[in-house]
## 1
Amino acid sequence: MAIISNATTILDAGAFSASLGSMVHIKTLTASSSGTLSFVNGASSVVLDDTYPIYKFLLFNIHPGGSSELTFNASDDGSSHAYDITKTTTHHYTVHGESGGSGNQYYVQAEDLAQSTAFQHLMGGTQIGTANSDSHSGELTIFNPSSTTFMKHFTSRTQYISSSSQKYQYDAYQAGYFNTTAALTAFQFKMNSGNMDTGKIKLYGIKDS
Amino acid sequence: MGVISAGTTLLDAGALDSDVATGKMTLIKTLTASNSANLSFVHGASSVIFDGTYDSYVFKFIDIHPETDDAKLMVNFRDGGTAYDAPKTTNFYRAQHGENGSNGQQGYRTDDDLANSTAVQPLTMDIGNGNDESASGEMTIFNPSSTTFTKHFCATSSALYSGNFAMQSFAAGTINVTAAVDGVQFTMESGNFNGVIKLYGIGA
């Protein structure tokens, strides 16, 4: 049954014809002294397949248990979920101290990857501060992870205050590609040491129609 | 009464069915500047929502056109009082390229960052005030209502400088308060401006 209002078809054939918005929330994971947060297609209501051409992770107030850096990786094996996809990436950041020093921009060779299966750092080369009010926020976009033709691109931009006594403000940028033509079916976030005390990561799908 | 189409329940009991995917980027408010000194988004005023309803908020600024030639779009935040004076530590860098092919370059701008300062923060480089000159871009602020953490924001913009340069800017920072941020104000570096700024909430 179709519903037509003022000559406009609102819904038909089991779906809405009218736009209901294009940024769809899929899943929120909340850290509580967590070693990892993992989004796996088909598990716990997570959708990470060709339903959407673009997926976006929003990171909110990631607060580490100890001085450490947030990292991420992907899986393409569909079952055992080894997070070990080969990647080539870039990494740069701007930094500025609360005291006014060191305002500058840098490329970080130590945190880019060259055909490496390691986890990609989402930060600017120093660790998140551990003061109660310190945290890490930002976003990560994955383009067409279900493609079996192309490699998969990602971009990210995150902000945080460093653990140093100078309280440096970082604005970090990462981008790169997962060098596989297999579909990516899962993504995992973890600190490079220790746990995430608190924080939330939200997964959204971006519709293409 | 439910609405079932092709065997799929779309509406029932006064709401969309939970299996219907709906967008989570919600337009909250549009403000239009017309030779205006500022545009302010304040939680609870003029239907503006800027609290814990959404985890993040996105401002889209569209065709910001200054009355004064080569002025930057600026932002500041309020954190409980009525003044837009929250302390911030920020970063700023830009890339530029002239219409004549000259001066393609990028770099960090120490003139446009702040060190735990209550001053206004630039979001763009200088915007020309020729009839067809303007700047557009967006700014995201994460969890502004938190009373535990400081608040992060980031912005990207493109501006047309009066010297016929394309100017891409990247501003970001931490609002260094644990009080909730409940208002955001946009101004120009000098003079008034025209244009549209839209506020969206990103929901769960």
Note: The two ends of chain B are 27 Å apart (CA to CA).
## 2
Amino acid sequence: MIFALVSCTSNQEKEHKYHGNFDKIKALEKDSIEYAVKSTDLIENMPLISVETNEVSFFIPERKSKIKAFKCSECHTKSIPELKSKNLTGKKAHDSIKLNHATIEELTCNSCHPSQNLDHLKSNLNAKIDFNQSYKVCAQCHSSEYKDWLGGAHGKRVKGWVNPRISNTCVDCHNPHSPKFESRFPAKLKSRKMEEIR
Amino acid sequence: MKVFIQFFKDSLEEVTSGSKVYHLWMAFLTLIMLIGAFCYYIQVDQGLIVTGMSDSVSWGLYISNFTFLVGIAAAAVMLVLPAYIFKDIDFKQAVLIGEGLAVAALVMCLAFVVVDVGGPANLWHVIPGIGIMNFPDSMLSWDIIVLNGYLFINITIPLYILINVYQNKEPKKSIYLPGVFISVFWAVSIHMVTAFLYQGLQARPFWNTALLGPRFLASAFAAGPALIILILTIINKFTLLKVAEKTINKIAIIVAVAAQINIIMLISELFKEFYFPTHHSISAHYLFFGLEGKTALVPWIWTAITLNVIATVMLTIHKIRTHKKFLLIACAILFIGIWIEKGFGLIVPGFIPGQWGKITEYTPSFIEVGVTLGIWAMGAFIFTVLAKTGIGVELGKLRYQK
Amino acid sequence: MSKEVNKNVENGQNTWHQITLENTDRRSALKTITAGLIAGVGIVSTSCAVFSEDQEKETSQLSWDEFFKKNYKIMSDDERIQTVQRLESLYEKKTGNTINISHQGPLDDVLFGYVFNISKCQGYMDCVNACVEENNQDRDSEMKYISIHQIEKGHGFNFEKAEDEFTNEVPLKNHFYIGTQCFHCENPPCVSVCPTEATWKEKDGIVVVDYDWCIGCRYCSASCPYDGRRFNWGQPHVPEEEVNKNQHYLGNRLRKKGVMEKCTFCIQRARVGQNPSCVDACPTGARKFGNLLDPKSEIRWILENKKVFRLKEDLGTEPKFWYYMD
């Protein structure tokens, strides 16, 4: 009698038992799901560029508006070899850019920037690549990271997990001239002890 | 109804009068209880942070004592069954003392649970009907049911017997015998269920063995009756109730057999852990040999095993077991050895190392020790009160006067 | 003859009647006195507070209602709104600030999953900090839901060789980093063992705790193989200016001493389309979160295209937290 009373008051929902997570996922998945929130609601009018391949389609943040001194040709009329030569008069900009990306046998300024057209990027075979699609340049050498990035295993979402997918592009995290992340100290834990030390 | 009030009055008079030794004993227990109550007040005020427990070792002294005392409560009643089978001892006596001890031990168990939870004011959440009880999934819910049911049985049966003897009536076997039988089988279940609390956790490989339940029973039936032998000896010395020598000897045999089985199970566990050590043996390694320089529990477990082995040997040898003094020594060291083994030898090492390999050692704080002693004192107090009343009725001292 | 039998039976019944009515009277007298004293002292001390006359009455009424409310899981929608409002009022009366406690339920067709890229984690611990701030965790005991383990390469995934409290520059040479937290299992052992059903798995897969229903027995913490659960041993404190005011009843609302808490996949964020704070805080993109039931989601792509694994797979808990490497 006690047992009956007690089991009646137990409120565990007797949900269907699946054999492992994948069985449950396959049983319950839906092809197109409408969410109440869209990821575009979370980004406050950030301009987006779309990326489309046969398998995936998603968005990345627009880039050109974020480059401070775009278009390059508004200031620079000379080609890169000329800019680099020591005979030039006038101020030298961008000399703080140290190329720390692979070796001189693999990459130089010209590998990615066309000499005569500073408003675009270029591929190995001199195809024009827009600054907004700079990932195409990186993908030439970093094909596995590119594949992973297209699928979602590499890189970061801008905001939110809901649709549409908005992912960061390569240069949003990696400085193309010096892409390696530097060593640093771990973030100091927020705690009372830490506050007292400060 | 009148009978009950008179009974209460008479027993109150009985428990408040006695020899100087008796009064000193009760005063001592009261002092310890008050210290315990004060420590508990501090704990309720500041939270469980005043104990030595942490997220790594989240159960400590309180649950260790709880586990041990469930065994005592179970075993206290186990002496009832042989008393009935052997038929040569005053059955009623055995029932009264045994079930009185069971009540005291159970009250201590419930007290240890109450002091261990973080929100004692919320304990009503567990009551089916006004709260929710996660039955049958949670073994803790089973434990709550069986422990309280056992307490109920162990209060009503002796009460029935006493109230009848009090009125010079013969208690009817047809009424109390079924209850006694139920309580004997229920005793096994309370300890198995308590063992299952730990046995079912796949997260703790030290506990997740098939032998845990049987091991609990074996050690309980060694420690419980050992305590009863000590108590009966005290009763023989300080009260007018005389318990026959052969009663104590028969109980001693039970203790001996249970202690032997306990040792066999220990050997079995040691073999499983150390014959081909796996990652799952690491808690046992910490317990018996220490790990990475952390050896806090090593002296405890080896002391416990030594005491248990010596006691078992003493109890096995007929000449030693029948010698009164040696019997008492053997019972005392067996009781202590099993207390250590169930507490520091079982509960604490289950948590060390933690789920990701971290070793965090545990030492009970003074508050914890204070509350624990307070609850033990309360248990002794309750048992003394019950025993004095029961003995008073048995000896004819307490009788209903109209 | 039959009369005698009847009388005996009657006597027996009377005695039983007496027993069943009086069984707690005498024997438990002392137990109840002591327990009552202790409980009384405890209750009085925990409910004592200093307020003004008017406020005191209202606050007492709110606290009274809060004490006797049901388990959130079985509350009706109205009752949930009421408790959330009571909690918001109590907070305002106590501190003068407003908070917003959501009772947002699970979204349809959503089952949350999480993936962690071990190659990318560099041990920065930005995730640990973001979590502590987002979820109003106790600053005194340095409570953190997320643990980052630093393991020397060559040992493999041998957690006995892991360091959990490191302060060296990261990434340390020849070491890799792996983070753990509540894995939100599909077969959660913590849910099975809780005696009051204070913790349960929601429809969207998040394992949650009703902090006001938990009695603090810590059985769940013993049963979790992944060190997912945290207990408030003392009274938790969060500095007033750091309190995250966007709260969820089952998530980051302020807890009290003596109750369990854990990672909730930032339920207050996930249910409105945002990522958990740890996911957003990670600079290297090592953490991924999403809806397992959307076959076109990132997380599904990772599960189907990368070599993923879970920890302690043999325990049968079916965690919804996977690991992979580049």
Note: Residues 48 and 61 of chain A are 5 Å apart (CA to CA).
## 3
Amino acid sequence: MTEQYIELHAASAFSFLQAASPPEDLIERAVALEMPAMALLDHNGVYGSARFHTSAQRNSLRAHIGAEVSVSSFGPRLTPPAWLPHQHNNEPTRLPLLCASRIGYQNLCQLITQFKMRESTKCDGAATFDDLGQYASGLVCLTGGDEGPLAAALTHSGETAGRETVEQLTRIFGRENVYVEVQRHQEREEEWRNQAAIRIAHSLKLPVIATNGVRYATTYEREIHDLFTAILHHVELDQAGRLLAINSQRHLRSAQEMAALFRDVPGAIENTVHLSSRLDFELSDLGYEFPLYPVPDGETMDSFLRKRVAEGVERRYGPKNNPGLMARAKKQVEHELALIAKLGFEGYFLIVWDIICFCKRNDILVQGRGSAANSAVCYALEITAIDPVEMELLFERFLSESRKEWPDIDLDLPSEDKREQAIQYVYQRYGELGAAMTANVITYRGKSAARETGKALGFDEDTLGRLASLVGQWEWRGATDTMAHSFHHAGFDIQHPRIAKYLELSMRIQDLPRHLGQHSGGMVICQGQLNHVVPLERASMPGRTVVQWDKEDCADLGLIKVDLLGLGMMAVLKDCLELIPEHYGERVDLAQLPQDDEVYRTLQQADTVGMFQVESRAQMASLPRNHPDRFYDLVVQVAIIRPGPIIGQMMHPYMRRRQKKEAVTYPHPSLEPVLKRTLGVPLFQEQLLRIAMTVANFSGAEADELRRAVGMRRSWERMKNLEVKLRAGMAANGIDLKTQDTIVQNISSFALYGFPESHAASFALIAYASAYFKVKYLAAFTCAILNNQPMGFYSAAVLVKDAQRHGLRVKPIDVQASDWPCTIEHESDGSLSLRIGIGYAKSLSRFAADALVASRRSEGLFRSAEDLAQRVPSLNRNELTRLAQIGALNQLDSIRHRRDALWQVERAGKLEGPLFRRDSESLREDSVALPLQQMNIEERLVADYAGTGLTVGKHPMYYRRPELRRSNILSAQELRTRRDGEQVRVAGCIIARQRPGTAKGFIFISMEDETGIANVIVTPDLYERDRSVVTRSRFLLVEGPLQNQDNVIHVKATRLTVLSDRALEVQSHDFH
Amino acid sequence: MSQPAEIYACIHATEFPAQALLRLRPELSKQPCVVMEGEPPLQQVCSLNRRARALGIMRGMTQVEMDTFSGVSVLRRSLSEEAATKAALLECAGGFSPRVEDRSDNTAFLSVIDIAGTRALFGSPETLAQNLLHHIRALGITASTAVSSNFHAAVALAKGLPAQTAKVVPTGEESTALASLPLTVLDLNAQQAEIFSLWGIRTLGMLGALPEKELIARMGQSGKRLRESARGEMSHLFLPLEPAFHLTERMELDSPVEVLDALLFVVNLMLDQLIRRATARILALASVSITLTLEGGATFTRTVRPALPSDDRQLWLKLLHLDLDAHPPQAAILAVTLDAEPGSTSKVQLGLFSPQLPEPSRLDVTLARISAIVGDGNVGRAVLTDTHQPDGFRMEPFSVPSSEPSESPYPPLRPAMRRLRPAEAAFVTITNERPITFVFRDRRYTVEYAYGPWLTGGEWWSATLWGCEQWDLVARAQDGAILCCCLIRDLLSDQWKMVDLYD
């Protein structure tokens, strides 16, 4: 009989920097070794268990779950003896615990949560005997390897102490749940402990069990393990000494190897199989219960939800005065409620409804997005703003009976404060153990990998900084954008053995977990018993707790979550809703914005800087073609400029049909109702579902399974089965083979689609609102968007220039008028203007700025620089200089220009003490003449950009225009008058560079001048030749043929030249 | 007697690392050249000639960036050539006046000569400046020279002048002469540079024109000094170069010496001189290097450095004697040079209750004797290092222990083990990767019990990687004798060694 062995003590890279292989690699290796089951015991948590479980399931392996828990009561873990030089710290011993049953798992989660949450900050923590005693039931305990309590006791105090330790464990866990563990890593020191352990086991009649204390899948990964050890202890590998592993034997070993190693220990190998058979628990048996929502007496959650929905339907559909729609809505709601009740999701909907109610009570703008917008119930509960009945959205995309996954509701909130308020409400409502953020596993990426590996290999900081700055940041990566290339560019000789090793290690640790962070908005909610399901721990942000699984893990295991996401544009809209009534005297209701021709005209002209979702280069390039003139066009617009439609070659056919250059056809006549809205081109996930339902008689649930199979890259096998079924269905409906191929091709290219139709509709709503506000209330919109930077595609400088081109007067920072945020001012002619806020002055503290504003409000305007410095002592010298430099002091009485202000603040920043000041006569400055010259235009521009990042004066290109005109260089505006194909020269200031993943290495540059924005296309060849010009220059001269197709204008660059700053200097001097 | 009027000549040579190298490589000077410094592969351009700058090369560029330029000669920085060039330039300056102040920095040569009272010897300042330029040019260096009665004006002007020009500023016209120069000729710190840049002050003239009192109110005394410098009014305390204090004695021997005693007789006299010179400055000798010029042109150098500086001639002689005894020169000696480093004579104060220690000088002699026998680096105390590598240790010089030794760290009751040093060769037969028989010290043993292999390995990231397996064996010889031992196999060289015998 061949031996069987099951590894019951393995750690994955989710023991953060203490083990080297991801769970998937461990499973892969176990499969190769024909191991029928395996256990994962990560340090103080079950971080990797979800991925371990999922991967094991996929490979038909049994995944046992457990953890290696730090226990402080056993004293410190084994370290080298004091007489040997070493750098080990005192850490508590670690006890390997395996979950035998669901109770055991729940106890493990509670145990870890208990000692983790006992700490006030994010840290490892350790359990005590009391904790273990409290949660011992259902857990099986091993005595551990080097890190365990037995090894520590044997080494520190001998065999008697070792026996006492094991007896202590039997008292806690029960005799039948303690296994004396032996590991053999071919280390001499380990062996005498093993012999002692075996004697103890015999004397106490406990089973001996062999494990390998696995830290990596194969011996090769020992290098990663050593590297991680060095990173963890902040030492260089050369200095790490005994911290590093003594050899590379902690890999997954085969049954034959283990049997040979433990031939002299009877039962050690057999016991692994025996214990494995005792471990009933698997993660699929989580015992997670749907959260409950407390309802008033006499109500059930179902009846309570029905009432809230019924009220909502009246509120939402009543004002629409459309009896047919109302009837359809009621029917749809009834259908949804029945399914919700059947699946037991009432609590979930009520919880989300409750959050919405909280936001409304507290004046927080909130809108649901994602597939929830397919649900009429969500619309009625005001979770979403899109009417799915009117838009005929497909509910099955959101919720279907056969889905094992919970519905996922994403809520968009104005970023930062308001979102935090909502999150804290959820914590407070559901208790510390009832709600937590989902984790975000921070993994090694190009930069962090190169930096930390470099540090461990002893490279100096400067060199590492240089390298990190060169690691590519583009979305699209060409053949030369490899890490090796970056290394070469940073001046490394990659033939050098140590540097070759550096490069190799940097690449090998890519994507391995580094530490656990918290997801920005994902919350898991579970009515007070979340700690039964997954351990919770403190996040580094105070007042936050986080579960040990990330978003995907939670979804894989069916945990319910609500995403509270920060969306900058929501904050802008919210600010607009306050600014518009205040300054324009008009009331606006986001839900009732009129469909306005002027707004659509602006969209058609791609004049969309600052507008949500439609402002990017690619969006601008497609807007004139799409020519949106109603809301649904905008829904398509938001969805179509995505990698999916572009790669799936949907974008161009749609655009051609939209422009009536191509006839609208359907793959099959039966699909006309499904695809009519998108001119016969499938664009949305809902359409995919409907296609499958229509042509192959799939049920809603089956169709959704198909969508999910397509969406997951790894599920080719599942996809194949479904394709067979799909084709069979189509054949049964008499669809010919060629059409079948077309339909299958259409469906396959959905693989990378980002958006369901409902999601696009939710976003389109925000996009329309942003466009409406920008067109109708430019001052309010610009003010709001400047106060919510950074967000969107363009910098504040571009937004200001764009607003100015649209006729808004923008006024500079002025200590006599500016508040911290930007504000709207009323001009004498009745128009509105925008005042830049002091917040835009770089490196000025909020505290000092608030003190300045408070002083101005209470004591009136400042009289001089000295008066300012005295009244606002919190303004330091640098801050005064900054204000003077950007012209914010120019309105003070005694100041004539910026240099004058600089001269005065340098004095005002160094005032004498009060005693000395009494003798004011001797301090008086002799000369009243101003010794400094006024700044010239160029100096003012430089000061503006350096000090605020923007200028409210003329665009820098304006000053160069005469010179440019002489050289026959066109402005962005003039490009519009030129013919397609004409050779042109255009120059501007680069405001955006993009290398999208779908563009095959092409680079898109947006250049701004005083007349607008010009678009430039750079081919990969040209980029290779002029890489530094493309990536580093600020002002650029481009030559090449003009492309003007359907009013979409590009210059295809054939030559790029840097416009030197010196030319600007010369030019500006010409003006004096 | 009236003080002669102050007058200074300043020499300024930019891109000194490049100039120092190209001086002796005239064939390169017509083409673009850069000088790189730093450890490969992380070198950076530290200096370059005009033709290289014209190509767009800048300081701080890396090797890879340099690779993108073709036809550029790349040289490595040579501090020794720079030192030699600098010495030549200073010597040239010294030819005009003994009072020379050196103000060179990392990449530029700058020195100022006090030429007061030299008119009779070298002619007018104009003539002197031209001559100076001419002499420097003859050394292969391009520089600028400026003459002014104000030290700082001369410096600023020399820095601001184009290469190969000389300028003399008449007394009283410093301010005018300096007015058009950029602020970079003054040594501004980052903060001052930032303030002036904010103020739009770009030239010395603009700086000099600022009102003094107001400037002091803003920038303090440093502002005043900068303003005076800009106007050529700043006074200066001249710090002439002093000859360095070198403790060196050299003697050419009349005939080649082969006997050490004869040499030591000479050395004794030289040591006496060195110690006299050192004690005159209340110093002692910290180390002495003896350099012997041998027949055939070779040189032979030994350095002796006792624990404490000493002025005991007998001690030095003894130490040198022992050292040379242990490392005798391989040919007859033609000349001998002694270089000594001076050191402080202060004594180490020992605690009242510290254990009695041998006198340092006698201990040094004893250690030197031992060292002469066992070899350098083999004397001292062995200290374990933080590594898994077997036998990982280093030698440390003996030192006075700073704390009480801790109680015996070795746990009792371990079997005794005899370490073989060095490890002895063994010839091992293996089956199934386990040793079966071996030959050790010409006897053949059959393994009865084998425990292992114990595996260790490390430093996989560098060229010093190592790995070995160890076996604890109980083996029996043909005559029935039992041997308990430890065999080690170096995994890199696949060699077996006997390292331990167990009792």
Note: Confidence is low (pLDDT under 50) at residues 1062-1072 of chain A.
